[in-house]
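ingest -> fold -> write
write: protein_1
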Amino acid sequence: MHASKIAKSYLCPVEKVSNIIPYYINQLNGIVNEREIISWAYISIDFLLGYNRSDCIIHAEKDITSVVSDRFKQIIADLKTNKPIQHIIGEVEFYGLKFKVNEYTLIPRLETEELLQWILEHEFTSVLEIGTGSGCIPIALKKNKDAEITAIDVSESALCVAKENAKINEVEINFLLQDIFKTTTLPKVDVIISNPPYVLFEEKELMLANVLDNEPHLALFVPDNNPLLFYKKIADLSYTSLPKNGLLFFEINERFGGETVAMLSAIGFVDIELKKDINDKDRMIKARKN
C-alpha cells in the first residue's frame, strides 16, 4: 500500500481490529513512547472487545461498530489529557485479577506484584494490611491463601472501592476505616504489610503528569524532612502486635533502603532483608520480630 494511503487509513475511523494499533500510534505520537501507546491500545482492546494480543491477529479483519469505534476515540481523547488509561476504563489487572480503580486509589503497579509474590512464599494464617487503597494486596492474598485478612485505610472513599473489589473477586476481607497516627494498638496477626506514602514533595517535579494529576496525594507524599514518617509509626505498632517470628513487609522508596533497615533494626526487628525489584531498585523489605 502506498505510504499516503497508509497514513490516511490511520486517520480514518476505526473500522477493523487491524486499524486500532496504528490509529493509537498516529493519534498519540509524541505524548509517550510507542511501546506505552501500544500497551494502552491493547488494554483498550481487551476492555472494549475482550481480545488479547493473539485474538487481535486472529480477528484482524473483523469489523468494528461505529459505537465501539467512537469509544476508542473517546479513550484516545482522554489519554491526551494525561488521564491514566486505568482511570479511563475504570479497572486494572493485578496478579491475574481485575480491580476497579479511581481517583481515590493508587493504581497497582508491577513492583507491588513482586512484593505480593514474596509474601506468598511464606506460611501464615492471619494478615493485616495498613493503607489498602484499592484492596489489591489483601484480595490477591485471600485468593491464594487460606488466611484471615484485615485491611485498614484512612480514606473512606478508598475503602468503598476496596469493598467493591472484594465483592467482584468473591473474597471476604475485614475492612476498617482507621488513621494509623491515631492508632495505639494493632490486631494480633502473623504478618503485617504496608505500602505507605513514600514520595518526597521534592520529587514531584520528577513525576509524570498522569500520576501527579490523577492519583491521591494522600497516598503518595511524605514531608521531605521526615521520609520514614509512616514506616516508623507502623514499625513501632507492628513490633508490639506481632508474635515471636511474626513478619513485617514494606514497599519502600528506593532512596531510603538503608535508613529503613537501620530503623527496623533499632526497634528490635531481626533477619531484615532488603530486596530489589525487577528494575534493580531497592523496593521491598521483610523483617522478623525476634
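write: protein_2
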Amino acid sequence: MSVQRLLGCHTSIAGGLEKSIARATDLGIGAVQIFSKTASRWKSPPLDPAAVERFKLARAESAIGYMAIHDSYLINLASPDPENWQRSSDTFIDELERCKTLGIDDLVMHPGAHLGSGDETGIKRICEALEQAAEHSGQPVRILLETTAGQGTNRGWRFEQLAAIVAQSPYVNLGVCFDSCHVMAAGYDLTERTSVTNTLDEFDQLIGLDKLALFHLNDSKKGCGTRVDRHQHIGQGTIGEAGFAALLQDSRIMSVPGIIETPSGTDHCDDHRNLDLLRRLSCGKN
C-alpha cells in the first residue's frame, strides 16, 4: 500500500499561534510550518501559557499530521563575530525551547554564513552552537538543516557541507530539510527523472536518505547552478512539472512531508493551485 504524502504550506500566526491551525484547517492541508514569533526580531515575549494551551487544543482537534517551526532569519550560527554568534546561539536555543513548549518536534534552520572566515571555520562555529543547544535544551527537538542556494558565503548548498555538520555535531538529533528551489539553484539538476535520481543517490551516499525529514517544495525562477534563491510557483519555474513528478514519485521518499513557501495569492488561490498540482504529480497525473 502506498503512503499518502502529507502536503501543506507555511501558515501565518497573526492574531495568535492557534490561528495558524485554523488557517491550515481552512486550506485542508496535512502539513504545516510556522514561525513561533516574529522572524525579523531577535527577541520576543515569552510564550503565554494560555496561548500555548489554545494552540495545543486547536492542533489536537485538527487533522494536521505534521508540524515544524522555522527559526528566525536573523540567526547565523556560522558567524565569525563573537557577539553576533552568541546572540544567534542564544536565540536559537530559545527557538528550541519554544518548540518544546508547543510540542512541535522539528525546527528548520539555515546553517549559516561564514562571512569570509572559510568553510572549515564556519562549520566549526555551527557545531559549537549546536553543542550549546544540546547542553541547554537537551535533544528532544529534531533540528532540520535546510539546504541552501549558496548565495554569498551561506553554507549548506553542497551535500558535503551538510554531511560534515551531521558528522561533527554534538547535537545528534539532526535531519535535513530539502528545499527543491535551493537544491536546483545550488547546481543539482532536478528537471527530469534521471537527474533527480542521481541527485537523491548522491544525497543518500553523503548524508543518508533516512536523514531527509522534510521537503520545501518550491520551483525556482533561476536556473541550475546560478546560486540565486528565488522561489516560483510549482511548474512555472526551471524545475517544471516533470522534475516535481520525478521527485515526488521516487519510492524511497514517498512518506516525507512537503511544505510550499510561495506567495499564497488572493484567498489562498495560489496555495490551492500549487498543492492540487503537487497532489496530481505525486500520483502520476498531469
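write: annotation protein_2
The two ends are 22 Å apart (CA to CA).
Residues 69 and 107 are 5 Å apart (CA to CA).
pipeline exit 0
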